[in-house]
């Protein structure tokens, strides 16, 4: 518990320093609980998620960093490796390939990379995965783009 | 067969971290018994090298420094004469304590990964032969995550990085081809330069003070006569 708290505090300081270096990620710690974080990430360019801003919620276990943080999308997203209802993310580093060399910040970077490079062979969203597996890239992109506009685009005016 | 050469075996937990845990206990126990301050100074210098290796590979300090600190703390504590010195019994307790043991295992995993990446050209063919992946992928998926089992690549890298020779006795079928019944062993001897000071020059044989018993899928600690 003490170790995880100390580690998260170091990450907090690092995040303050990295803010400028990584404008695509805005990682914020809960005011009252250092084990709860949220992040706003920008959809990577040249993907159907471009222009969207996606919110992630982190729940950090007491055994962190020996155990991975739990992360899910709060913003709805149409992606083969994200559960359409719960926002759960299928990513190896959040499960068996986790190591303390990862940080909350680098997890965000890995999620952005996953958005750009979906893995349709291990889908959490089968509809999305099936479109890609059957080679219907256009169908996948237009569905994903539609949800980006509907759910992840900043409201104007 | 083993009884001819070894007096005892100490079993370690079988959770994929057994090699690192065996190494940790065996090494700290050796220091505790021998009070070898020269060896402690030597390994500390190597640990500092490992720290620099990780930094030069682009690892962020705060991701590994806690694990390094905890290992160095254990080293100081097994040396007697400090306020924090511990007995053999306390070493046993600590090694069973998940929060200490896991952190030391993670320290070794960082050191191992750093060494493999630093000498990726040397390790590449072995890694490829073992898992068919790149060094980078191997370190990320088979070295750094807790619970990933160790193979000769891990052992070689850890032994080299810390400059600690390790003997592994293989209780598998690797010696059956010869016909007679025998037990194979292999000594992992660090590359020159990292060796304990007493064995610095030339080819005299090194007597590893860490002996592990390998049975397919698991490592335990052996105590030679």
TrEMBL record, chain A:
It comes from the Eukaryota. GO terms for biological process: peroxisome organization. InterPro entries: Ub_conjugating_enzyme, UBC, UBQ-conjugating_AS, UBQ-conjugating_enzyme/RWD. It is an enzyme of class 2 (transferase). Residues 3-153 form the UBC core domain. GO terms for molecular function: ATP binding; ubiquitin conjugating enzyme activity. Keywords: ATP-binding, Nucleotide-binding, Peroxisome biogenesis, Transferase, Ubl conjugation pathway. It holds the Pfam family UQ_con. SUPFAM superfamilies: UBC-like. PANTHER family: UBIQUITIN-CONJUGATING ENZYME E2. Belongs to the ubiquitin-conjugating enzyme family. This is E2 ubiquitin-conjugating enzyme.
UniProtKB/TrEMBL annotation, chain B:
It catalyses: Thiol-dependent hydrolysis of ester, thioester, amide, peptide and isopeptide bonds formed by the C-terminal Gly of ubiquitin (a 76-residue protein attached to proteins as an intracellular targeting signal). GO terms for biological process: protein K48-linked deubiquitination; proteolysis. Belongs to the peptidase C65 family. PROSITE patterns: OTU. The active site is at residues 15, 18, 218. It is an enzyme of class 3 (hydrolase). SUPFAM superfamilies: Cysteine proteinases. It comes from Salix dunnii. Its EC number is 3.4.19.12. This is ubiquitinyl hydrolase 1.
């Amino acid at each position: 518990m003490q170790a995880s708290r100390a580690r998260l505090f170091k990450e907090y300081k690092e995040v303050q320093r990295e803010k400028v270096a990584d404008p695509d990620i805005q990682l914020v710690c809960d005011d009252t609980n250092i084990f709860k974080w949220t992040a706003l990430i920008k959809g990577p360019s040249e993907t159907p998620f471009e222009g969207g801003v996606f919110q992630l919620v982190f729940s950090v276990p007491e055994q962190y960093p020996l155990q991975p943080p739990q992360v899910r999308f709060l913003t709805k997203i149409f992606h083969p490796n994200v559960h359409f209802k719960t926002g759960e993310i299928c990513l190896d580093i959040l499960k068996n390939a986790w190591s303390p060399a990862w940080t909350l910040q680098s997890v965000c970077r890995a999620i952005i990379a996953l958005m750009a490079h979906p893995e349709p062979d291990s889908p959490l969203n089968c509809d999305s995965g099936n479109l890609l597996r059957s080679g219907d890239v256009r169908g996948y992109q237009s569905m994903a783009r539609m949800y980006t506009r509907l759910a992840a685009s900043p409201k104007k005016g | 067969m083993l009884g001819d050469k070894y007096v005892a075996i100490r079993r370690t937990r079988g959770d994929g971290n057994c090699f690192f845990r065996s190494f940790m206990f065996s090494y700290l126990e050796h220091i505790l018994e021998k009070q070898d301050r020269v060896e402690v100074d030597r390994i500390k210098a190597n640990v500092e090298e490992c720290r620099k290796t990780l930094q030069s590979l682009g690892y962020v300090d705060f991701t590994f420094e806690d694990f390094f600190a905890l290992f160095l703390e254990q080293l100081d504590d097994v040396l007697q004469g400090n306020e924090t010195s511990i007995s053999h019994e306390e070493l046993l307790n600590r090694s069973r304590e998940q929060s200490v043991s896991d952190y030391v295992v993670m320290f070794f995993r960082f050191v191992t990964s750093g060494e493999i990446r630093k000498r990726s050209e040397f390790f590449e063919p072995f890694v490829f032969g073992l898992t068919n992946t790149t060094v980078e992928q191997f370190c990320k998926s088979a070295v750094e995550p807790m619970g990933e089992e160790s193979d000769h690549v891990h052992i070689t890298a850890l032994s080299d990085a810390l400059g600690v020779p390790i003997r592994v006795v293989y209780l598998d079928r690797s010696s059956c081809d010869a016909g007679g019944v025998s037990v194979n062993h292999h000594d992992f001897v660090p590359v020159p330069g990292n060796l304990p000071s007493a064995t610095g020059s030339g080819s005299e044989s090194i007597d590893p003070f860490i002996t592990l018993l390998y049975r397919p899928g698991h490592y335990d600690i052996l105590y030679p006569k």
